[in-house]
User: Which sequence fits this backbone?
């Protein structure tokens, strides 16, 4: 089983506004991340489409691999911070592309990968030429929230039986087992 960790969580109050980093975000099934520009606060279910073109597909949350941003800097010289990439959840240690069409967990939240989140020309306009080509097919993942909860920085990301949710911050950690001692016989 492959799993990684959440290294940062980002929200933007409205479309086009800069993203800001938060320690946690509440994920609501069918609506998105509370406080984010893409959160659906309307009546009834979220519409399946908005606008036209590539950005017309609606999703609840976007994710990207920190390794993709590091490779972009190494290969093209374009340094794109996690906040500037405009994805909600930045992960380390897991490949996101294979999660398209599958359910996976981010801490106690269950997501379903919808499709790759390819970089857009607007993001390139905000940075510099070469960004779209540099992030092509590694610009992240668009996902829907199947079962909500709270996503925290440090949460595990992956799928499989071995993945467990992060313990609540208000509960004490389980006690450490006593150290093992070996018997020495003369």
Assistant:
């Amino acid at each position: 089983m492959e799993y990684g960790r959440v290294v940062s969580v980002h929200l933007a109050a409205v479309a086009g506004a800069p993203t800001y980093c938060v320690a946690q975000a509440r994920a609501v099934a069918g609506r998105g991340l509370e406080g984010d520009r893409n959160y659906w606060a309307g009546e009834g279910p979220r519409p399946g489409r908005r606008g036209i073109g590539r950005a017309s597909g609606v999703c609840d949350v976007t994710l990207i691999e920190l390794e993709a941003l590091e490779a972009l800097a190494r290969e093209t010289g374009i340094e794109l911070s996690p906040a500037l990439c405009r994805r909600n959840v930045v992960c380390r240690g897991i490949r996101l592309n294979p999660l398209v069409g599958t359910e996976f967990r981010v801490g106690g939240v269950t997501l379903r990968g919808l499709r790759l989140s390819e970089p857009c020309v607007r993001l390139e306009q905000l940075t510099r030429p070469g960004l779209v080509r540099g992030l092509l097919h590694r610009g992240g993942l668009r996902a829907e929230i199947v079962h909500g909860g709270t996503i925290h920085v440090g949460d595990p990301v992956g799928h499989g039986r071995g993945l467990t949710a992060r313990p609540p911050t208000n509960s004490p950690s389980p006690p450490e087992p006593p150290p093992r001692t070996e018997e020495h016989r003369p």
Summary: The helical segments are 66-76, 121-126, 131-135. The chain has three helices and eleven strands. The longest helix spans residues 66-76. The first strand starts at residue 3 and ends at 11.
